[in-house]
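Q: Hi! First time doing this. I have a protein sequence and I read that you can turn it into a structure. Is that right? Here it is:
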Amino acid sequence: MSILVTGIAGFIGMHTATRLLKRGETVIGIDNFNDYYPVALKDARVAELVRIGGERLTIHRADIGDDAALNAALSDANFDRIVHLAAQAGVRYSLDNPAAYVRSNVAGHVNILEIARHRGVRHLVYASSSSVYGANKTMPFRVEDRVDHPISLYAATKRADELMSETYAHLFRVPQTGLRFFTVYGPWGRPDMALWKFTHAILEGRPIDVYNHGDMRRDFTYIDDIIAGVIASLDNPPADDGRMKAGGFVTPHRLYNIGNNRPEPLMELIGEIEKACGRKAELNLLPMQDGDVHETYADIAAIGSDLGYHPKTGIGVGVANFVAWYREFYRV
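A: Yes, that's right. Below is the predicted 3D structure, encoded as structure tokens:
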């Protein structure tokens, strides 16, 4: 049987599919290839996947928010596990285009749940986000913390996904694992993320916008560490045994943080980019933006205890790897 990967042309989706293909799995991918950022990057990711996977990879272009199109695309597909990573990303963009988030993150999530339910999949792993913690002040963020005060629509949709997943686990016993990702970065990353924006501007000799005057901390997590957590979760579905699981559920549903367990100052990230680029950055210091939080910090005790997850990549190594990839990809 195959594994369905939604959002396969995205950053985390591409890396997840790469890891699965390299270990011999057959992968069915789906993506709508929207233009939130340049489609050429998504096409390049898929071209790399085709090179790696060959005939063990099938790609469908469809919108998960359109249930008719989704079901038509997958009508002849056979799979028993799902890694659901498709979503409209970006905290700030949700302030300008809320409908895109409701369609993709809410309706799309329900559509995937329905597929998992009716096909009797063995395990559905889905992407949540550290954004669900909102303005929580207690550090580090734990999966047991209350998360009912989101400060962006993006965060609200991700919390809604978790609650809908719990409903399907309760009513239909669909085994699920939700993963709250913390600031993922690395090669093939997203152009709307700080690391990409800063690298691009520094290499072009332009100033970079630094919010909250640089007083921000993020639990930057390298893509290889993220994928290690995704695969470990996929390979170990939660049991339907009535016992309490991470996130506080007794259904076959659990929640994990996947982070680096070490919040880094934003100015340290900038310093590592300067070092990797061999150039100093010109800083344009700005106030905090709506929807942003001052600090993120993941408690990873649950996934560490259950699945042996331990991040290995420090920010210096991770940033250097990204900048090297960026310069090769764009030949700069």
